[in-house]
């Protein structure tokens, strides 16, 4: 079954950078609140990417608190996916499938997490490039007003809310709706041979 669009923010056109070591913007996360019980893909928009073709991004999903501060370390609760430099599309909101779907609880608080990543050696790589963000809080789902863009330092600690303190990146999340069994009255009638009685 094909995945479908769940959460989204299309508002904002400001270039915001992250990914370099030493200024507290080594990692970036974005809070969201799902209406589907899993996540299979995310979309984001970048204005630039590293000139080194080994360097792309790593993406994963995690739980978070009311301020979009991730609960766990790098890798979170699952979905870790390396996106190569060649796969990155500059200037367009682009969908990237997660390596594995992550089960979620509808209405709970989560973050999609991002790190500049050497996809050849599979390690963090300092790489400062621009993504596209809002300068306000256009994405504020019911019950999660603190859904926002947050940055973390080299140790993946000291989360901070940069710039206006209440921004959202341009993003989409996708999920595969759970299979729901047909109601009994809607099931196809079972073939019954002539003369068959129950």
Explain what this protein looks like in three dimensions.
This protein has strands at residues 4-9, 14-18, 27-32, 38-44, 55-63, 78-83, 94-103, 110-118, 123-124, 129-133, 149-152, 171-175. By secondary structure, the chain is an all-beta fold. Mean pLDDT is 90; it is low at 180-193. The chain contains no helices and twelve strands. Helix content is 0%, strand content 37%. The two termini are 36 Å apart. The chain has one domain: Jelly Rolls. A hairpin with a 4-residue loop joins strand 8 (110-118) and strand 9 (123-124). Strands 3, 5, 6, 8, 9 and 11 form a six-stranded antiparallel beta sheet that branches. It has a four-stranded antiparallel beta sheet with strand order 1-12-4-7, with no helix packed on it. Strands 2-10 form a two-stranded antiparallel sheet.
Q: Can you give keywords for this protein?
A:
single chain, 198 residues, mainly beta, Jelly Rolls, six-stranded antiparallel sheet, four-stranded antiparallel sheet, 0% helix
Total strand segments? 12
CATH topology: Jelly Rolls
Assembly classification: single chain
- Poorly predicted spans: 180-193
- Shape call: globular
Beta strand %: 35-45%
Could you say what the CATH architecture is? Sandwich
Give the radius of gyration. Answer: 20 Å
Please report the distance between the alpha carbons of the first and last residues.
36 Å
> What is the CATH first-level class name?
Mainly Beta
Report the helical percentage.
under 10%
- Into how many domains do the coordinates divide? 1
How many helix segments? 0
Report the mean per-residue pLDDT as an integer: 90
What does the largest sheet look like?
6 strands, antiparallel
The computed structural class is: mainly beta
Output the helix-strand order.
Answer: EEEEEEEEEEEE
